[in-house]
Design brief:
With 378 residues, this protein is α/β, with parallel strands linked by helices. The protein has a single domain (21-59, 73-377), classed as Alpha/Beta hydrolase fold, catalytic domain (Rossmann fold), CATH 3.40.50.1820. It is 37% helix and 17% strand. It has a ten-stranded mixed sheet with strand order 1-2-3-4-6-5-7-8-9-10, with helices on both faces. Helix 5 (170-181) runs parallel beside helix 10, helix 6 (189-202) packs across helix 7 (220-231) and helix 10 (264-273) packs across helix 11. InterPro entries: AB_hydrolase_fold, Peptidase_S9_cat. Pfam families: Peptidase_S9. This is Peptidase S9 prolyl oligopeptidase catalytic domain-containing protein.
Length: 378
């Protein structure tokens, strides 16, 4: 069964926003969004197509890549939930595919969970994004917890993950190919394109309040949430978890190693191609510019984080996270604070860096995210 949707892009303030911002103040964010959308469009290998929806089935054997350890997640299972009688019987699970463009990676797998019985016709919705090498099924504890509290919970497989992967090295192979050929953007940007298309779909659902769509994610998913919110104002409440960093700051301050090590094969390939004996900051900068143009320059956190104003933004990081060094957030946070002050809504921005925590999503982060969404979406 297939249905065709007529879609468009919203690149303005969220509907119903009570914050008044002058045209002068909005122009930089609007210009950044326009430039970013142009970059996303520049490497679409296949023509855009009308957004269509295909029904799917639950995934029997989810794909986990690399050395990912499958099992329970204490952090995700700590998410607050309502004690509902016969919850499993009342839980609705939808599996579908959005066709965001032609080609294999243009088929976006989506998992949606909600409660069958709800007093509200239109409910708030939250998009959840998995970390590297995992998949949407990994997020099931979060989806169920939020569904129990009246949200419509949505998860996707990011590019080259889950149902979009053919083997346990698909993501790393895609990164190397992006460096070699330069025609795709598997690190962050191509999934942001999918999230814009997902927004086109979500606002047309009769059970979702289009002004109350949140977005969050862990690690790579946190980066996806951050950039999707910077690009698309329909994401009205934003909580990136262990995902926000200063890419240029890390290069300038020789703090790029931990991030590079998480996807090292592409940097090793670049090192060889550039005739280097070891990976250095020149290699790092050239890789970012090749596989995610602007990531360490005009679209870095000092510019894209303030672009989220005036929407509520909570950044959750570990104070000792080597992949997202806290010192690298000084510039984006300072600019965000100034922007939120100018908009008259400083209470809508917060950075929480958990002491003694590295690159890890903790139960307290999950609960803080939950409280933030309840405060601003319910």
């Amino acid at each position: 069964m297939r249905s065709t949707l007529v879609v468009g892009h919203y690149l303005s303030c969220p509907a119903g926003s009570s914050i008044r911002i002058s045209r002068r103040k909005m122009e930089p964010a609007a210009e950044l969004r326009s430039a970013f959308i142009q970059v996303l469009r520049s490497r679409r290998l296949n023509p855009e197509v009308p957004l269509t929806v295909e029904l799917g089935k639950p995934v029997a054997h989810p794909m986990f890549q690399g050395n990912t350890i499958q099992g329970r997640s204490e952090a995700m299972e700590s998410c607050p939930k309502e004690n509902i009688t016969d919850f499993k019987e009342k839980l609705i699970e939808e599996n579908l595919y959005l066709i965001t463009e032609e080609g294999e990676q243009g088929r976006l797998p989506v998992l949606i969970m909600s409660l069958r019985e709800s007093p509200r016709k239109r409910r708030p919705s939250i998009v959840f994004l998995h970390s590297s090498y995992k998949c949407k099924e990994w997020l099931r504890p979060l989806l169920e917890a939020y569904a129990s509290r009246g949200y419509i919970a949505v998860a996707i497989d990011s590019r080259y993950h889950g149902e979009r992967a053919s083997n346990t090295n698909t993501y790393l192979e895609a990164l190397v190919s992006a460096w070699k050929i330069g025609d795709t953007m598997p690190f962050i940007f191509d999934t942001v394109w999918d999230l814009i298309k997902l927004g086109d779909y979500l606002i047309q659902r009769e059970d979702i309040d289009p002004a109350k769509i949140g977005i969050t994610g862990e690690s790579l998913g946190g980066m996806h949430a951050w950039f999707a919110a910077a690009a698309d104002t329909r994401y009205a409440v934003v909580v990136p978890i262990i995902g926000v960093q200063g890419f240029k700051w890390s290069i300038d301050n020789n703090k790029w190693q931990a991030r590079v090590d998480s996807i090292k094969p592409v940097f090793e390939e670049a090192r060889i191609d550039l005739g280097k004996k070891e990976i250095d900051k020149e290699v790092v900068e050239k890789v970012w510019d090749r596989i995610a143009p602007g990531l360490a320059s005009e679209f870095d956190s000092p510019y894209t984080v303030p672009a989220i104003v005036p929407r509520p933004l909570l950044i959750l990081n570990g104070a000792d996270d080597p992949r997202c060094p806290l010192a690298g957030l000084e510039a984006p946070v300072a600019r965000a604070v100034e922007a939120y002050k100018d908009a008259g809504c400083l209470e809508k921005f917060e950075l929480i860096a958990e002491p003694g925590i590295g690159h890890q999503m903790t139960p307290s982060m999950v609960k803080q995210a939950s409280n933030w969404f309840d405060k601003f979406l319910k």
